[in-house]
């Protein structure tokens, strides 16, 4: 049976404990950069960095548990997801996917669990898949997690072009069937990709195109590379167009948007998109300054932060936009959720009982 809407009914986050300022990052990694450049060009002041012992799955597990706590608090009873979607570019292993192990550690043995790979757009892609599964009547309660550990996996710590941008963390949402009028209801969406520009954001080696150790590997080919200027231009154009599509699909104008939560990559990109759409500064929310770019985790982390600080009323008309490697992009309209976000610290694999 089809249900009228999918509704966000739990919000969870998990962040590594180590907060690193621009000045400290520059000093520790011997970067030819300065705090002022980073703040002015990106809007980032600090980021949370995972210890080498903390994996993406550890963060995903903690954020997932926190979302279940939040969902149980709102529902007044324990909640059990029936599918787990994990958006990540930094899985625990090349094979298998990380989601099944996260589901197992959550006590959800037997439920389907899959990773969604769409770089920084991963959360928007995964949430749209969850929405489709719920409204088609195939699943009732998906758990969607965005989790990343760029700093310990993909980033060259000595590359100033990328090391200053990324942070680690995880955010999660619990989804259930409901009605379009409820707080948390997902409305319209727009997704897209342009694989012709895959080279603009890429880790050249380590996949089947250029396996580790194969002839042609350069010493830095296993690190993340980005053509920042070109990506910037595409991000602004694609997120603006995608947002317009999602707004049209909902029957909202930009004036109707009470909360704008974009992928947190660069404050200048966020402001350029919002300016083009005509969404005033007071309606733009995020935590880029404190967390940097956490890729697939950035939107659920920003959503939870906005809810924790009670900046937006439950039910408020909300617009989410994402952009990342692939290239991929997406936008989603929703009513701001009423769930109170919960947060948990990540714990290493062998210490699950501590959670
Ligand atoms: O999350 C996935 C999507 N990613 C994005 O959306 C990121 C998109 N791109 C960006 O956010 C920006 O392009 C960056 C923050 C990466 C770079 O900012 P920019 O304003 O585009 O700088 P630029 O690359 O045009 O470089 C401007 C100047 C250059 O010097 P010259 O040639 O003008 O002398 C760079 O060498 O800034 C220099 N520069 C730096 N200086 C100090 C570049 N990186 C740094 C640095 N510190 N870290």
Cα-to-Cα separation, first versus last residue: 36 Å
Q: Tell me about the biggest sheet?
A: 6 strands, mixed
Second CATH tier, the architecture of the largest domain: 3-Layer(aba) Sandwich
Radius of gyration: 19 Å
- Regions with pLDDT < 50 over 5+ consecutive residues? none
Q: Domains counted in the coordinates: how many?
A: 2
The total beta strand count reads: 15
User: Mean pLDDT, as a whole number?
Assistant: 96
Q: Kindly provide the name of the CATH class of the largest domain.
A: Alpha Beta
SS-derived structural category: alpha/beta
Strand content: 15-25%
Helix content: 25-40%
Q: Can you tell me the CATH superfamily of the largest domain?
A: Thiolase/Chalcone synthase
Looking across the biggest beta sheet, what order are the strands in? 5-4-6-7-1-15
Per the principal axes of the C-alpha atoms, what is the gross shape?
A: globular
Name the bound molecules.
Answer: oxa(dethia)-CoA
Number of helices: 11
Overview of the molecule:
The protein has 355 residues and is α/β, with parallel strands linked by helices. The protein folds into two domains: 5-183 and 340-354, Thiolase/Chalcone synthase (Peroxisomal Thiolase, Chain A, domain 1, 3-Layer(aba) Sandwich), CATH 3.40.47.10; 186-285 and 297-304 and 311-335, Thiolase/Chalcone synthase (Peroxisomal Thiolase, Chain A, domain 1, 3-Layer(aba) Sandwich), CATH 3.40.47. The chain is built from eleven helices and 15 strands. Strand 13 and strand 14 (328-335) form a beta hairpin. Helix 3 crosses helix 4 and helix 8 (228-250) packs parallel to helix 9 (267-277). The radius of gyration is 19 Å and the shape is globular. Oxa(dethia)-CoA (UT7) binds next to helix 2, helix 7, helix 8 and strand 13.
